[in-house]
Amino acid sequence: MTGDSPQRASRRPFAISVIAIINAIGLVVTIAFWLLVLLKPAVPLPGSLASLPERASAATTYGFMIGDFLWSVPLLLLAAVGLWRMRFFGWAAAQMANALWVYSLTVIWLRDAYIGASPGGVLFLPFALASFWAGYVLWKRRTLFLIETRVNNPSISST
Question: Which of 35, 76, 130, 151 could cross-link with 27 by S-S, CB 3.0 to 4.6 Å?
């Protein structure tokens, strides 16, 4: 922790705290969801299925799992910690996580339109909806996160 952490935390707006908590919950839910899929083989391995559509659907699910562990989990962790500490990396990670929520749910809903609703499409809907609000709030409050850049680099003007 740096010496300015208490100051940063004391000026953290309530909405930023809420977004940090939503990201932390999203992190836990994402990890738990995929661990359940793995531990209780809810989705058969693509190679074990006979029809091409079933294999494609299973491969898409496993692709989302790999993508979530490679991208969503680290971004949600960075977002939760960074927003809580009012750091630029938290703001940037949260914006990237917001884009991933919307992108992922769009693909899942398109797939589900053809094969039926999936647990992931229902479970992650609140996070995708919250990401629209979070993206707006974070954009409006972006200058709170740019202060550390200006302080550490005097060549950047505030205009």
Answer: 76
pLDDT, residue 151, reads 56
Residue with tokens 């960075």: 78
The dihedral built from the CA positions of residue 101, 110, 64 and 32, taken in this order, carries a sign that is: positive
The rounded percent of the chain whose pLDDT value lies above 90 is 57
Task: Using alpha carbons only, give the angle 96, 45, 48 rounded to the nearest 5 degrees.
Answer: 150
> Is there a domain that residue 60 lies in?
yes
Distance CA 23, CA 130 (A): 10
Q: What is the mean pLDDT of the chain?
A: 87
Q: What confidence category does residue 3 fall into, taking pLDDT thresholds of 50, 70 and 90?
A: very low
**Helix or strand or coil: residue 153?**
coil
Spatial separation of the C-alpha atoms in residues 27 and 97, rounded to whole Å: 10
C-alpha distance from residue 73 to each of 51, 69, 112, 140 (Å): 32, 5, 23, 25
Q: Is 122 a domain residue? A: yes
Q: Which domain holds residue 102?
A: 12-152
